[in-house]
Amino acid sequence: MDDMTAFVSFVFKTKENVSLHHCSKSKHHYSLVMKANYKLPQVLQIPWLSRVGIATSYTLWKWLWNVMVSQLAPKDQTGEYQRPVSLFRNKIENSPQALFPLEKNRYTLYVGFPCPWCHRVLLTLALCNLKDYFHIEYCEANISDGSWKLKDGQSIRRIYQYYERHYRGRCTLPLLVDSIHYRIVNNESSDMVQFLMELSATNRYSVPIVPLQNYILLEEKSKALVQRIHENVNNGVYKAGFAQNQKSYESAVMLLFETLDEIEKRLEQHSFIEGDVMTIADIYLFPTIYRFKAIYGPLFKCLWKDIVLDYPFLFQWLQRIYAIPGVAETGDLEQTKQSYYKSLFPLNPSQIVPKGLNYPFTQ
């Protein structure tokens, strides 16, 4: 395999959508044959990069970047990042008659420390004191293609297909399965957080680590705030980081920091976002702020304001939650940095992981 073939194979990681052919007597002249869904001419002549000028190299890289980001992060018609809908939406309930009743040694939860959606579920389990009810399998990010794998090397796709033989969709984490009846229960973190909080409120055998306000008891204005945090902050950093044009990026950044401004004003008056008791709003926000200084700021270009300097009450809130027993163990920031900076090739082609950028989490 020559250098150009290796380069194209590395970028596309598949032979289904692209193939490479020599198209002249020169060993440095190629044609890149693509499927029509790339919306480019069927054959694009690509001189080897060492023989072309900066302008051609720039054009090629820009096109490759757009292809890779489109594959990595789904977008809508405006170029804005759009998170796909999860397909498995069952819930565990505190009732023996439920389809999925709360029972020990029945459910397995697959998670990965780098994933913020997994982090919110692990955080909820810790705060609700429900970890003993679930067997937790920690997965690792596959740097080469962004997928997840178990520590024994088995891909998370094999787990999906073990429980749902004909499943061909996206294989995401967190994933909750019924290990006794061989069914996928849920793969949507928002659902898991909500039904775990409901389980905690109705389970007399587990006492929450801290007082928690049940989501179903929140007023509509509070639920609207939770939705803004989810869309403008949790998803907002990804909308900024994976934006494919300036307008989409600026729109995402504006909404992100406007929402953080609102939260800062709330935390100036109270210990937590909704008052003096933690709610789902705090659980949703924590994983994003936990990653903000080390990852979302520098890597996703969310640098308009600094969490420590510009949001002192938000930073104190972060330290306050981090100090709760069991919370520190729900994340691994160093592993998370390694995953983001090495697996998101379009955002960091060098795969260099910066030193520092960590919060002083303890007061």
From TrEMBL:
PANTHER family the UniProt entry points to: GLUTATHIONE S-TRANSFERASE OMEGA-LIKE 1-RELATED, GLUTATHIONYL-HYDROQUINONE REDUCTASE
Active site: C115, Y238
CDD domains: GST_C_Omega_like
Pfam family, one: GST_N_2
InterPro entries referenced in this protein's UniProt entry, alphabetically: Glutathione-S-Trfase_C-like (IPR010987), Glutathione-S-Trfase_C_sf (IPR036282), Glutathione_S-Trfase_N (IPR004045), GST_Omega-like_C (IPR047047), GST_Omega/GSH (IPR016639), Thioredoxin-like_sf (IPR036249)
Marked site positions, Lowers pKa of active site Cys: Y296, Y340
Binding annotation for glutathione: W148, E188, S189
One Gene Ontology term, aspect cellular component: cytoplasm
Gene3D superfamilies assigned to the protein according to its UniProt record, in alphabetical order: 1.20.1050.10, Glutaredoxin
Any GO MF annotation of the entry: glutathione transferase activity
Residue ranges annotated for the GST C-terminal domain, each copy included: 186-343
Protein name: GST C-terminal domain-containing protein
Highest taxon of source: Eukaryota
